[in-house]
Amino acid sequence: MTLHEYMAMQQKTVDAALNRWVPPESTNPETIHRAMRYSLFAGGKRIRPLLVISAADAVSDAPVGVESAACALEMIHTYSLIHDDLPALDNDDLRRGRPTCHKVFGEAMAILAGDSLLTLAFEVLAKLEGVSADRRIELVRELAVASGTVGGMIGGQVNDIEGEGKHPTAELLESIHRAKTGALLRASVRMGAIYAGADAAQLAALTKFGEHIGLAFQIVDDILDVEESSEALGKTAGKDAAQHKITFPAVYGIEQSRKMAEDERVAAHLALNIFDDRATRLRELADLVVKRKS
Amino acid sequence: MTLHEYMAMQQKTVDAALNRWVPPESTNPETIHRAMRYSLFAGGKRIRPLLVISAADAVSDAPVGVESAACALEMIHTYSLIHDDLPALDNDDLRRGRPTCHKVFGEAMAILAGDSLLTLAFEVLAKLEGVSADRRIELVRELAVASGTVGGMIGGQVNDIEGEGKHPTAELLESIHRAKTGALLRASVRMGAIYAGADAAQLAALTKFGEHIGLAFQIVDDILDVEESSEALGKTAGKDAAQHKITFPAVYGIEQSRKMAEDERVAAHLALNIFDDRATRLRELADLVVKRKS
What's the CA gap between B46 and B199, in Å, rounded? Predict the structure, then answer.
């Protein structure tokens, strides 16, 4: 199976699981379930769920039900996009090529849809079947910390907002991105590993892998924002410069940024050295993250 | 110890626990931790934590660390107030007698502070010490469901928003309030019971108790909104009528609403019949909920 076919298959599995976990649109209150589903099923690439599943596969053979744990990551990611797009934050009208949640459902419903997805992520983890309570609570802890304020996603977002217009230093840049995007990507890999019962050495290796592709992902994101059109990205391009955001191209220039992304890709591969062919998909995903065009 | 003294003591215990769980203001990013603390330490009555602790006490003798589980409830409650007060929702400038979170920290930070408290609530439950993983995961599930869209807090909020200006029927009224305020109060009592290891009969009795005081609480809230001043309430009074909200006074009139609150109080007492003196504080809290003036 090619990576492309593998991804298409896993995306279907994840979408089916999301469809089972999110209440149907016909469930009261209908509006909130419509809003949640609108943003969840907007054609996202499901990178985080793919990392969860591929990391679990690297540890043990296709553990049953791991796609449900993967759903929790996608719910957190989607809630963060909905809230990030709000007028009070990034004020974005376009996401994944479609009007943002608040443009369609209004601001009140978008705020609540984000809250709902955030809450549902933890409900899903608590209700995972065939996984011990010990592992489920470890997953809850991992996701909560990675999404939180101290070194987690929200912390990165706040630093990012407060960094606008500040002098872009290398330290500030790295601390923002390790938290803002990196924490959740790292958690994706770790949660897959925890789900599959990784031992300490496996978890440490996969954690390193997650950190390297997390950084690679953000560097490439920053480059794409400069180089690609809004149409290609499915979201407003060139926003970083317009908002005076601290980005890798702003600090290092495009060429150096490209080299840094490649270094992270290589380091990600190295981290997987203790794994055999089981980690092939993870290696391919690391390549994809660096070579993607949107 | 009088109820008043008991409450003051427990509020201190809860505030100390909150202070341990929420990162200090000096932790990066400082702004978000200031915003979280501003709203958490705004002089709330800590009704939900008190219910958690008192329900746990009814089941077993003062279980160690229950105040940490209680913190999770207060974090969810506070996040819901912060988001509810936003311009896109209730657009309120005053809460607990002080400017609302977004008036002080701006809308972006208020949205993120709410998200952070919601996330931290689950981190706290995952990290509870001296409680089995089985019980911790049960607490996570309970809190997530009670805060969610299907019969939970967000579901009630959405119905409440969408109900504005609609013909106020008894069914609509009850379904809104069972979810909007009731679900979290019910969960408070149940989480205390689960924490303390309640058996099935105890949990069933305490669940009934939680449902009755939940309804009583909301009826009294609606009455106070009509009868008291903004100064006495510490929040804008008379808003329900101004926004054409579906309330108990609007459907039943003030006198009948008062009688209904009293009926719920009596039913709450009855539900506690299987408990001896251990449940005294719960009985007193039921009385307090109905007799309060703010």
Answer: 26
Cα separations (Å) of A208 from A161, A183, B55?
A: 27, 12, 44
Reported ipTM: 0.95
Number of domains forming the structure of chain B: 1
Tokens of A53: 């599943």
Is residue A203 in a domain? Answer: yes
Digitized pLDDT (tens) for each residue of chain B, 294 residues in all: 999 999 999 999 999 999 999 999 999 999 999 999 999 999 888 999 999 999 999 999 768 999 999 999 999 999 999 999 999 999 999 988 899 999 999 999 999 999 999 999 999 999 999 899 999 999 999 999 999 999 999 999 999 899 887 887 888 888 888 898 999 999 999 999 999 999 999 999 999 999 999 999 999 999 999 987 777 767 777 777 777 888 899 899 999 999 999 999 999 999 999 999 999 999 999 999 999 887
How far is B210 from chain A, CA to nearest CA, in Å? 21
B-contacting residues in A 113-152 (Cβ below 8 Å): 114-116, 118-120, 122-123, 125-127, 132-134, 136-138, 140-141, 143-145, 147-150, 152
Return the percent helix, strand and coil in chain B, to nearest 5.
75, 0, 25
Q: Across the interface, do A33 and B108 touch by the CB < 8 Å criterion?
A: no
Domain enclosing residue B96, as ranges: 3-291
A108 to chain B, closest Cα gap in Å: 5
Query: SS3 for B140?
Result: helix
Q: What is the CATH number of the domain that holds A57?
A: 1.10.600.10
Q: Which three-class secondary structure state does DSSP give residue B279?
A: helix
Residue A147, in any domain of the structure: yes
Residues near B168 by beta carbon (within 8 Å), at least 6 away in sequence: B246, B247, B250, B251
